[in-house]
Design goal:
It is elongated, with a radius of gyration of 24 Å. The chain has 417 residues and is of the alpha+beta class. The structure holds zinc ion (2 copies).
Length: 417
């Protein structure tokens, strides 16, 4: 399970693993493997919302279900028809606790729903936990029914869980407020492998192409922010992060919100850890978030003017924290600022980056201390800077620290007979 969520397979349950396990999730077992062969033979499926007592209004529920089916029908030749009374291929219901399918629900939180793979009878059926606080809006309170329905319908069509944290078929619930729900590139590929491509769908010309999860081996990869966190370095990109731990062999990708609460936004500008103060700060636009022990501090997010930035500064590009000297350097455009952490004041006026940090391009994307050097990130490059000689000592690819070794070409040897 740890491997599945992109966590180091340490074999023991550390704090991070427990956070992921407590996250709301789909109830389908992670270890089941279905193979690619379970799918519906027909291309038009009927569905029915069963049960006389719904925790939500039927008309609202139907609207959401239609939207969830549409995600899958827009990329495949599949069609979904609603039925009110007669038997349907897929029966959808809201259930409390034990509902006689040997997979009882656990009340509010935890497991949100489950579904059965295609087949007769209960096959293809979808059950939602009636004890959740289901929501229909984009505000992010409660559990978004559309996001969960889209995922469960994927199972009802025959898809297993995906280990791609960007996929709708990833088992942990994730919902980005105020963002239109979309199938990911992986989801589209997977469902099309089962049912083929919708004649009206093209990955190339679609107006809003399905988002691809960033790949640490992409030579064009750039980062939003990079920070130290205890022994780790964390690289942030969009909704995702890579956690590089000195004791772990592989650096896996995971969702930012698999560790920190949903209040920590995606597409961050800068992040740094203050070890002495035992907190971590996330910057995006004019706001910043303070977290202690994975919990958002009260009263946050707050405005970056707290640090003494003038109002012309609308965002921070990068932050570099000096643990022993108790100060932080902020990078904004072509300027850098020195913030005294002990007195909570900005020291003096901003300096020009090209004077203070010769050879470092500005604006920068991210900056972090690692193994005695400062590493600056800009586009797909990273600059290794020696503080003593005040020189750039190396310019390498941005993803170099993620140990992306080129896949060796497995040349097929022709067997002699
Ligand atoms: Zn699932
Ligand atoms: Zn059930």
């Amino acid at each position: 399970m740890q491997r599945f969520f992109g966590l180091p397979p340490s074999g023991e349950l550390n704090q991070e693993t427990l956070v992921v396990m407590k996250k709301p999730r789909c109830g389908l077992s992670d270890v089941e493997h279905f193979g690619d062969t379970i799918r519906w033979k027909k291309r038009t499926l009927s569905y029915r919302l069963a049960g006389s007592t719904l925790p939500i209004s039927a008309s609202r529920a139907h609207k959401v279900l239609r939207a969830a089916w549409k995600l899958w029908s827009s990329v495949t030749p599949m069609k979904f028809r609603k039925r009110n009374r007669k038997e349907a291929d897929i029966v959808i219901s809201f259930n409390n606790g034990d509902h006689e399918d040997s997979a009882p629900f656990d009340g509010n939180g935890g497991v949100l729903a489950h579904a059965f793979l295609p087949g007769p009878g209960i096959g293809g059926d979808v059950h939602f936990d009636a004890d959740e606080e289901w929501s229909f809006n984009h505000s992010g309170t409660g559990v978004n029914l559309l996001a969960v329905a889209a995922h469960e319908f994927g199972h009802a069509l025959g898809l297993p869980h995906s280990s791609d944290p960007g996929a709708i078929m990833y088992p942990a619930y994730s919902f980005v407020p105020n963002n239109e729900l979309q199938l990911s590139f992986r989801d589209v590929k997977d469902i099309q492998r089962l049912y083929g491509v919708s004649p009206s769908f093209s990955l190339l010309v679609s107006k809003k192409p399905p988002p691809r999860t960033p790949d640490k081996c992409d030579p064009d990869l750039s980062f939003d922010a990079v920070t130290r966190l205890q022994q780790e370095i964390i690289f942030f990109k969009d909704r995702f992060m890579w956690r590089k731990h000195p004791q772990f062999h592989k650096t896996g990708i995971t969702l930012i919100n698999s560790l920190w609460p949903d209040t920590v936004p995606s597409y961050l500008d800068a992040v740094y850890e203050n070890v002495e103060g035992n907190f971590i700060l996330f910057f995006k636009g004019q706001q910043y978030w303070k977290l202690r022990q994975l919990t958002l501090s009260e009263g946050f997010p707050r405005n970056i003017s707290d640090f003494g930035f003038p109002s012309r500064i609308k965002s921070v590009d990068a932050a570099l924290h000096f643990r022993n000297e108790h100060y932080t350097v902020f990078f904004t455009g072509h300027e850098c600022w020195r913030y005294n952490e002990q007195q909570s004041v900005m020291e003096g006026s901003p300096m020009l980056i090209n004077q203070q940090w010769p050879g470092i391009p500005s604006p920068a994307d991210a900056a972090v201390f690692y193994e005695g050097f400062v590493h600056f990130f800009k586009g797909n490059l990273h600059y290794k800077y020696d503080l003593i000689s005040e020189h750039v000592v190396g310019i390498i690819s941005a993803n170099d620290l993620l140990e992306c070794k080129m896949e060796e070409n497995n040349q097929t040897t022709t067997e002699r007979r």
